[in-house]
Amino acid sequence: MTAEIIDGRKIALELKAVLRRELDALRTESEGSAGYGLAVVQVGDEYSSSTYWDRLARLGDELGMPCRRVRLPDTARQSDVLAELLRLNCDPDVAGIVVLRPLPAHIAESEVFCALEPVKDIEAVHPENAGLLALGTPRYVPSTAAATFHVLDEWLVASGTEIREFYHSSLIVVVGRSNNVGKPAVSMAYARQASVESVDHWASRGGQLGWHTRRADVLIVAAGVPGLIRAEHVSEHAVVLDIGHNPVTGSDGEIRFVGDVEFLDVLDRARALTPVPGGIGPVTDVWLMRNTILAACNLRDLGRAQLEMS
Ligand code: NAP
After folding, report:
1. What's the average model confidence in pLDDT over 236-262?
2. Nearest Cα residue to atom 40 of ligand 1
3. Are 9 and 16 a contacting pair, CB within 8 Å?
């Protein structure tokens, strides 16, 4: 059996049309003020972070969404990063703030995330937002997890599947449990009332990875290990969503990105599969912009509430 390839670029295109309408409404309401900008904070010059910024800058241009890169050298001190965040927290032109990972080892990630203004924390890394997400009442759903489930929902609708019934009777296995990708994906799966299993590198070390993943109706992979999932890890009825986005240098010296799934191998086995590139990534980028618009609306409502109280 050959799996259906799920086209993330097509889904992203449809989402962009929705976003344009939301942006138009916001521009009209904000009467020309630029209170819906995105600020992306990068400490150091890690390759994947820089290419991610390039993609966001292009998308921002395309949508007419102000995007600003705030760059600090990898020698920046913790206090420099915190001072920059304080400035962005107070900047009325900035609605959403994203701090790119990985941060240099000498920077305490948790302290940086705690310094974000929660209403501007569109990737839900501040403990308040991460807690709301875990409780099933998210202020923001981190863009990668949101994109993954949007892609899955769209595929289910297109394939004529009854969504609620599908989730209620499905086992979703998530490989990788980072705070920014794996755990939010688990929260999203809970929110859809699916059965959920979460596995990390200990399952691989113990030789149990395939035992878990072969039982999945939906297999979500976010481990950061190129080619981790092969045909032997996947059942024939599985929908496989590959979040992995790993830079590898080819024999020609060029860097390209590959997923965590051995694409051609799994293509011959699964029911449906997202490619890398062109799967979850493009939808994630658009979702980040969407969260920024949501933050702009939240800030505006907050402003109104504060005015009403004063
Ligand atoms: P991360 O912080 O390094 O976390 C990786 C997770 O995978 C950890 O929980 C780790 O387990 C687990 N893991 C590592 N090796 C494993 C193995 N052999 N078997 C099972 N689990 C294993 O990475 P991340 O930020 O979550 O990113 C994961 C991948 O997603 C990367 O390729 C990244 O580039 C990609 N990504 C893509 C998007 C997108 O939009 N497409 C967005 C963000 C990230 P332990 O905790 O036990 O070490």
Report:
1. 96
2. 281
3. no
